[in-house]
Every structure is written in C-alpha cells, then in structure tokens.
Amino acid sequence: MTLRWDARNRVGSAVSDWTARQFLVEYLVVAGGGGGGSTDGGGGGGAGGMRVGALPVTAGTSYTITVGAGGAGGAAGFYGGSNGSDSVFSTVTSTGGGGGATYGGGSSGPLTNGASGGSGGGGAGWPGGTGTGGAGTSGQGSTGGTASNASIGAGGGGGGAGAVGGNAGVNGGNGGDGLASLITGSSVTYAGGGGGGSYNGTGGSGGAGGGGTAVGVGSGGTYRIVTGKQNISLRIFITVQVTSKDNLPTIK
Questions:
Q1: CA torsion, ordered 89, 91, 96, 97, to nearest 10 deg
Q2: Are 232 and 65 in contact (CB under 8 A)?
Q3: Would you say 175 and 154 are in contact if contact means Cβ atoms under 8 Å apart?
Q4: Which of 106, 104, 103 is nearest to 122 (CA)?
C-alpha cells in the first residue's frame, strides 16, 4: 500500500514499520522578468516564465536550483530592456522574460519590437511607426502588447503568465496579469508583466503579480519599466511504502 503525507503542513502521522521510498515535490518556478525599454514610448518588460507541477525526487540526491535575476531596464538614450534570466529546478526550466523595446538607435536591447521570452516584452511606439510585442513561451507566459503612435508614441505592456500585455493608445499599455498559486498555503499571484511608457499620456500599470508600473521624469521625459521578480517555491510530499499491514500510518 502506498500513502502520501504532506510534509509542509504536517498532515498525517505514522507509527513504526514504514520506509520512505520517494519524495514528490510540488514546484512553482518563476524566472526573472525582463527590463522595460527606455524612451517615452518604450515597451514594458515581459514577466518571467512560470511553471507549476510535481516532480519525483530521490532521498540523498542533489538537485540544481537556480533563481534567475530580473533583467535591467534600458539605459537612458534609446536602449531596449534586457531579458531576465532563467530559473531552474532539476529538469524544470522557466524562461526569463523578454525585454521591452525602444525605438531609437541604442547599441543594445530590442529595437521596435519586444523581445521574446517566458512572456514577451512590449513593443515601442514613436511618431513614425509602432512595434509589436514579443512572443511568450508556450505553457509559461503570454505575448507582449503592441505599441501606438498616437500623441507621439506609447509602448505596449509586457505579457504576463495569465494574460497578454495590453496594447497602447495615448497611454502606455498595461502589463498582463500573472497567475495565482496556492503552493504557499494561500493564494498568491506571480509573474505579472510591466507597463509601457507614454510620451503625452500616462504610463501603463503593472500586471497583477509583481509587474512594474511605468514612471517618467519631466514632461516627455525618459520612461523605464522593470519587472524583475522571480521565485521558486517547493512543497514536498512523502510517498511511503508500508511494510506491515498491522502498522499503517494514520492519515488525519
């Protein structure tokens, strides 16, 4: 007979004569979010990829855990945001979020269109055109929003784990919402996208789950948006093999 015991909540108890054979780890792995693009119509950074599931592990075995860092926002003067770094738990990898775009001639980062990632970064907007959002990774996140050239320019919002990034109008697009998880014992939302910037309007709001809201400096100033949160949560279940039917664990 095989029984399961929730180690985190200490649900269940066992008497003598049973041997733990395997651990089943319920995981939540969120990568680092992408940085937002600079300039007035810069795109919001995409959320880091979010993966959930369960993975069997063996006692006494080492497993790799890497918590990816958030990407840097684009430097002032037409630079796109950097992609976030991947987060890893054993064989499970969540992809870093895509950087938000800028429309200028910066020497690094995505230009015009948002970068692909766990969730995609938002596109950049300027008077002469608009960029599209980067693609999200299947099963981890969503596409970034499209920019606008209305009122000089506004950037699309970064994608979130649960929703695509908002398209821009006069205002910057809002970041896409993340997804809620109960792994900590209460409902917490993770992996929201960052808001896009705007020249004459207001910056977009960050999506639920940690997405950054666009901020500006002065009239028509530089906007930079960063969503850089990351997380790995593990919940362990113990699978036991009963060696005597007379000494069964009591499950409460």
A1: -100
A2: yes
A3: no
A4: 103
Q: What ranges in 27-111 are assigned the alpha helix state H? A: none
Domain that holds residue 157: 1-252
pTM exceeds 0.85 = no
When divided into structural domains, the chain yields a total of 1
- Dihedral Cα 23, 21, 13, 18, nearest 10 deg: 180
CA gap 191, 172 in Å, rounded: 19
User: Could you read off the pLDDT tens digit of each residue along the chain, which spans 252 residues?
Assistant: 333 444 444 444 444 344 455 678 899 999 999 999 988 789 999 999 999 999 888 878 888 899 898 898 888 778 889 999 999 999 999 999 999 999 865 555 667 899 999 999 999 998 888 999 999 999 999 999 999 988 788 999 999 999 999 999 999 999 999 999 998 889 999 999 999 999 888 899 999 988 777 754 222 333 333 344 455 555 554 443 333 334 334 433
Torsions phi, psi for 226 (to 5 deg):
-130, 130
| Tokens matching residue 33 | 């979010």
